[in-house]
Amino acid sequence: MNALTHIVAALVLAPLIPGIINRVKARMAGRVGRPLLQTYYDLAKLIQKGVVVSHTATWMLAAGPAVSLAAVGCALLLLPGPASPAPVSFTGDFMLAAYCLGLSRLALILAALDTGSSFEGMGASREAAFSALAEPVLFLSFLVLAVGAPEISLSGMLGRGLTGVLAPERLFVPLILFIVLLTENCRIPVDDPTTHLELTMIHEVMVLDHSGPDMAFIVYGAALKLWFFAALTVLAVLPVRSLSPAAGWAAFLAGMLLVTVAIGLVESVMARLRLMRVPRLLGGAGALAALSLVLTVWR
Amino acid sequence: MEFAATERLDLTTVPVTPVDAFRCRVLDRVAEGWRVLALFTLPGDAGGRELCCLMGRDHDGQLSFLRTAPLTAYPSLTPECPQCHLFEREIYEQWGIMPTGHPWLKPVRFTGCPARPDTPRPAPGVTEYFQVRGEQVHEVAVGPVHAGIIEPGHFRFQCFGEEVIHLEIGLGFQHRGIEAALAGGPDRRTVHFMETAAGDTTIGHCLAHAAVLETLTGLTAPARGRAIGRIALELERLANHTGDIGALAGDVGYLPTMSFCGRIRGDFLNCTGVVCGNRFGRGLVRPGGTAWDLGQPEIEELSRRVADAGRAVLGAAAILFISSTALARFEGTGRLCAETARDIGLVGPPARACGLPRDARHSFPLPGAGAKDIPMQLNDSGDVQARGLVRRLEVEASLDFIAGALADLPAGPVRAALPDALPPHSLAVGLVEGWRGEIRHVAATDADGKFAAYKIIDPSFHNWFGLALALRGQQVSDFPLCNKSFNLSYCGHDL
Known about the structure:
Radius of gyration of chain A: 19 Å
Shape of chain A: globular
Number of domains of chain A: 1
Number of strands of chain B: 15
Oligomer: heterodimer
CATH class of the largest domain in chain B: Mainly Alpha
Largest sheet of chain A: none
């Protein structure tokens, strides 16, 4: 039961994260901003709508969003909660989690290519390139987390806090995970989730042809993915396991809020990177992760 | 034949130039630094059209006018003088006069040609496009329906990965036939066509039209009316430059400046609303002056509002131009060199951002305006950064001008009544520096004193091609940013 609490919390609360980010951005810009619950309203609206399908598209267009959402859901099942291990946990499960997210992306990329639109192909190629660069960074940070963990699974690696000597190299990990979060979730400085300009988009342009419930799956899947990475970042820092369940949950939720606000602040104070500069950002994060790993093992 | 910009030209005194001499003189003058302001046709004898060329010299505000006998073909000027390329395409499309040797004779507005009834009218956007072939080259077509609420235009990119090898822009979707509707005027509708030629440049086009009629009739607007018109022109510039700076910020995802400028643009539009009750200045400028006067309370209200909004926009621009992440996107993006800009006849802030001192307020000041009233702002790097900076500096200059003009508004009436009849066989030119660049109106009257031809050249006419060239070798994802740094008008081009 306990193990499922986090899943339920993620499923229910995830659409709140984009709402909070947008509120932070609006406040920073001197605007009132849309309602905090806007993503829920959007989902409710989209689910009731019909689907428009291009006559050049095949079944892949409809399958993409469903597979994508299901894959993100599977990844969430492997993520431990603040007070309990994950419902499914085994040695090396972080690989499965990473590739569940990869499968989710692949499904969307195939659906985008299926439309035959030059935009969507362009967006798909950008998405594939950047996620291929983000993947090694994610694995390097998993390895850092795995050093000294009781078992090599997400449940064993996370929630222990920054144990051992509080060396600077350990503090890199949440920072690197935050950069991966921004990349994987198409936030500024990598992508601009609010732009309406087809030619600069990455994620948004891939999903231009989706509508109705399919679009709802994509929006909801994106919220769940954001939750996954935010929770990963929080659990990599906070020693929630050593606290009582109530305190653990409180600290976890506070951490999630902090990460969400941090995303909003990043989006408010900096411009997007030039597309060709994104690999440098990820390369930097990767170098930092490698350094962190070497230092951690060495000590 | 040379004349001053504020002089009426009697067409009966202009000799007919043979085509070869016409061509030589145009090319010689371009080499001497003249600009081709307009290449157009006038109705000639026996239903033919004669080719006319209006040129301008920036340093002393002289104009030059040349005309040929009616013709059906002539050797194209474009290979030697690229700034003519769109004029020649336009003339071929409208009148079927063939510029022999034109390298890329495509439709401009897809209007079909009355002179060639056997050729069917092409569907908008359906024409040849330049294509690059190769293993990894791909073509991206955007529009005419876009993801945002903007005007229709078609963009074809030939890309090698993310790099743009060539961009071709297809316009004409907004063609309304304004120039054809103006022939036979002026009538009650004329000024409304001017106000909507490019809706965001209402004041600019109205002032240019007013200048044409005032030159034709030989009357000048009263000092107070002229001052109010110029204040409105600068307010229009302020509102649009503010919007552009905000849009540049928005395109790189820098939200604070985008949000602030969105609001401040509205504040400036409201200032125009204080003057005449319409935020876009509809119904304000009329031939002979303005239709509205400013009372003392309005002057005080306006001064206060402009000062407040001015402080706000300079603050919003300051945080944009010190943000290293935004500058990293602006610098070096969409660079145009001065030579290219000169060749294609670029105007307005994009030309000044390349270091070309082209500003109609300096070269061709309106009667009653001083050439040095508003300092010209130049930059020389020619990239998005330069175009943004020129706008920011022009905001400052316009704010200074408005503050001074409001504090020292001449007394007297705001409008002089123009006579109903215009002199026959005359040509007059109206040149106004709108916020987007030099707006050119050329009118020629027939034997009855009605418009035989009325030519409107919005700054977008030349600058769209500048955008296409600025994008070569850039990343396709930087197109929206480059596009915003030019911020051109679709309807102003399509007319």
